[in-house]
Amino acid sequence: MHIGIAFDLKADFGAVSGGPEDLLEEYDSDATVSAIERVLVARGHRVTRLGGGRRFLERLLAASPELVFNIAEGRGSRSREAHVPAACEMLGIPCTHSDPLTMAVTLDKAMAKRVVASCGVPTPEFVVVEHERDLERITLPFPLFAKPLFEGSSMGIRRRSRLADRAQLREWVGQLLGDYREPVLVEEFCGGAEFTVGLLGNGANVRVAGTMEVEPLLVPRDQFVYSLEVKRNPNWAEEISYNVPPKRARAEIDAVEKVALDAWRALGCRDVARIDVRCDASGNPKFIECNPLPGLAPGWSDLAILWDRTGGTYETLVGAILDEATTRLALR
Ligand SMILES: Nc1ncnc2c1ncn2[C@@H]1O[C@H](COP(=O)(O)OP(=O)(O)OP(=O)(O)O)[C@@H](O)[C@H]1O
Ligand SMILES: [Mg+2]
């Protein structure tokens, strides 16, 4: 099969002056694209690199692949992750991963929470803040958590994102509004165990590929944030332990996986997603966010780590995503 890969590289954006230092955190490295390409070629496919943005459109039209393998984060808006699947849909070219609606809804974390909550999935209470003056109306109990409304890869997520009081809330939200120039999601802080659930499938065949607990080693759970500082720490193993499967009773893991599966269904995901779930102080699992374009950096992204700890290889991970798409689309 002729497969095009859609992607956005950090390098495509060149040097960015001004703005927060994690502005390009969502974008991929050439090593990730090469790793995916190697898997696809080893499986006998012909591969064309399509890239992202305008170049993606030009190459897509010129190459006309039979399938697009999509890891493109897009640029510039809360709909950015929907750009590639929308273009493919318009041209009738099949595409891996979720459709434009799911991509757009999940990137806006408040939209995703409204959708899952309407289907009975527990998620922390929240408020969307557009201006600092909105903060005065917040009556949610502290501690709270604040993050940019439509980003991923820990953009704008720091140790100090956990807010103990109104002074910290004002200061951190003010900084996020200025840095990211988008609304801020303020929600209840869940101080219990943290999990991420990898899911694969389509329709009734959705299944949990693996569940990983991210266990803090240096701070108590109720202070822990799986932040950019932690994710970028070269000595991360001193700070956190990735437990696959979680060292917990089956019933507890089942409850976490139920939240993830119910959220997947509510959001209409396809092929693959990674869903973050965190327990509140009483141990009740809550939906935090859904990543229908989970990072695929070998040995680095959570889904790749999780898959590796279940005994899989990078080849079988990319292969499993491809197989889900080709089965859904009845392609060979
Ligand atoms: N309401 C909350 N309560 C407690 N911790 C939270 C909450 N929201 C986010 N966090 C912490 O911040 C981390 C990152 O938040 P979130 O998953 O929303 O951001 P992200 O940048 O989209 O993540 P990813 O790197 O998975 O794309 C979570 O893994 C968790 O540790
Ligand atoms: Mg997350």
Order of helices and strands: EHEHEHHHEEEHEEEHEHEEHH
Spatial extent as radius of gyration: 19 Å
Name of the level-1 CATH class of the largest domain: Alpha Beta
The CATH topology assignment of the largest domain is D-amino Acid Aminotransferase, Chain A, domain 1
Number of domains: 3
Beta-strand content: 15-25%
Query: What is the helical fraction, as a range of percent?
Result: 25-40%
- Poorly predicted sequence stretches spanning 5 or more consecutive residues: none
CA-CA gap between termini: 7 Å
Helix/strand-derived category reads alpha+beta
Q: Please, what is the average pLDDT? A: 95
In CATH, the homologous superfamily of the largest domain goes by the name ATP-grasp fold, B domain
Description of the molecule:
By secondary structure, the protein is of the alpha+beta class. The chain has 10 helices and 12 strands. The chain has helices spanning 30-42, 53-63, 83-91, 100-107, 109-118, 166-180, 228-232, 250-267, 302-309, 314-329; strands at 2-6, 46-51, 67-70, 126-129, 144-148, 162-163, 184-188, 194-201, 207-216, 240-243, 271-279, 285-291. It has a 5-stranded antiparallel beta sheet with strand order 10-9-8-11-12, with helices on both faces. Strand 8 (194-201) and strand 9 (207-216) form a beta hairpin. The chain is globular, with a radius of gyration of 19 Å. The N and C termini lie close together (7 Å). Adenosine-5'-triphosphate binds at residues 124, 145, 147, 152-155, 157, 187-190, 194, 225-226, 276, 278, 288-289, 291.
